[in-house]
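Dear colleagues,

As part of the handover before I leave the project, I'm documenting each prediction I ran so the next person doesn't have to rerun anything. This entry is a single chain, and its sequence is reproduced below.
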Amino acid sequence: MAGRRYQLEEQVGHLLRRAHQRATQIFIETFANAGLTPTQWAALARLAEEGGASQNHLGRLTAMDPATVQGVIQRLEKRGLIDREPDPDDRRRTRLKLTPEGLDLVARHSATGAQVSAATLAPLSDTEAATFLELLRKLA
C-alpha cells in the first residue's frame, strides 16, 4: 500500500457510507406506507423485543446518542405508538413501552423489515451475505 495514491472509491468509510445510503433508500421505499424512519423503526422493533426500556437503555440498545433517541421518542409518542409508564424498579425513571397501536404496527411490519435486509443484501450470494454480516458485526 505504501506509495499508492489515495483513491476515495477504495476507502472503507466511503464504501460504508455508500452502502448505508443504499440501505436507507431501500428502507424508505419499503416502509413508505408506514411513515417511519430507520431510527424510529429500530426503536419500535427493540421495544417490541424488550417489552419496554428506559430512554437511556433504549438509546444504548439501538446505538443512538441521547439527543437522537429523545427526538425519536418524542415523534413516536406524538403518533401514539409508544407511551411512558413508571419504572417499577426505580421511581425516578420511566419506562417506554409500545402502545397497542405500536404493537400492531410492529406486528404488521416485521416482515417488511426482513424484506429491507433481503433487498439490501440481494447483490450478494447467501454465503457472501453471511460473511458480510459476520464482518459487519466485528466492525460494529
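Helices lie at 12-30, 38-50, 55-62, 66-78, 100-121, 126-139. The radius of gyration is 18 Å.

All the best with the project,
I.
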